[in-house]
């Protein structure tokens, strides 16, 4: 579904998904699971107009600064054609366009779920190919500066930055930000210890608070706003983190990374190294047309 | 410091670190920062016996099961000798010992900070070498089964599993598990909304609760217990996560991963793919001898 959507830049072309693996996949981008085994019903409703359009907002990216390379690496394409893949193929599709002009380039992608920015976590000697990979640190912190809604720039160090849409608020962003029962219980135990809790601390209340907190992370795919979150922020004398997450209309990021990338929907990545500046925002022109079938 | 410690398996050999970059590094494994510019004072104290031994407990690893490869990839060595590095060098140091015997192998490493288990996050075409890397998914969830203190096996899907020592409780584990002011504030707002909070919700109280929660994540390097935590657990119909973290004496993990590894102190990694079983525990025989100088 993400791959299909990544090919559509036209507001006129609807994209509809069917969940072919309902046992193992939530399929939140697809039609409800009941249509998997009764697809004719879905077709009937589409034919009869028993649906409404759902406009899933998407994120666009501008890249500028020194040493950027606006050539995307298409990770989905690599997976599909892994055997016949050749460097010539890549050369044919994506010319190396390392740009001398540093003005903002609008990247030829739209994020349906999220943009993730972080140090590449490539590592390891490849036993089979007998070639050591040139980078190895499995978990290297990402250094960057961030400005939210044209606010002041803030230096940060973390495991990466995630900027999502309403659609993506159910995806990776949710897993980064959700809180566990266990954590809520321990926080409330501390509060109780200070004599500040009226209610008895039972499982039901903890679950209720946990659910309400986690539900607050989700919002409608149609809302033209983004949700940014910082993964595992590192806070010390040099690096601050005034807000770990929040809604915004615009996020600017300046890379201070050594070997980082911006990854769109887990499928396309762009180099994003020291000196590069990304501007991340939603333009409603980029919304993806999907359907909501009537019950 | 981690690299030096990784060479020491002898309880008699003390390892002492000096923080050479106090501006940018916490140096929690080193002597306090004041000795960086007055190292003779430290030497004096050592000479006079004005110190005590600090035993930093370390984790040992047993690996068994089908298709394991107990050959470690030494990531520190790769960094130090990146230019002159050659495959012949690796071949000389670590013979490929893919084992036919599936009995538990005690790995030739001891974790001073932590063991991290997760899918390799290697990705990307390497523009310079003109060779596509054979794996690309930047963020693939890790599948595994876990048994804590010989308890029942539980299937899990997450961004990885971290098992640390007291020393490591201040390191990556801390960044995975710490809670932000912002999250505590939002949880307490929910509690207040239910009429359950006695105290006014001011910044001071929120900070106090946050600090107390985060402090509870830290413990003494000398305690012979491990702290396991699951990073970004994915919870749905198939995968449970009864406890996101906790103390334990023993953690067993069975890999259901495609291309995963166990990484010790961010420096040495072992393949850990489907069928491999790791047993993770502390043996006080493996403790590293370090010093605590008298004030």
UniProtKB/TrEMBL annotation, chains A, B:
Q: Name one GO cellular component term.
A: mitochondrion
> Which keywords fit this entry according to its UniProt record?
Kinase, Transferase
According to the UniProt entry, the coiled-coil residues are: none
Superkingdom as given in the UniProt entry = Eukaryota
An MF annotation (GO) of this entry: NAD+ kinase activity
List this protein's GO terms for biological process: NAD+ metabolic process
Its name, as the record gives it, is: NAD kinase 2, mitochondrial isoform X1
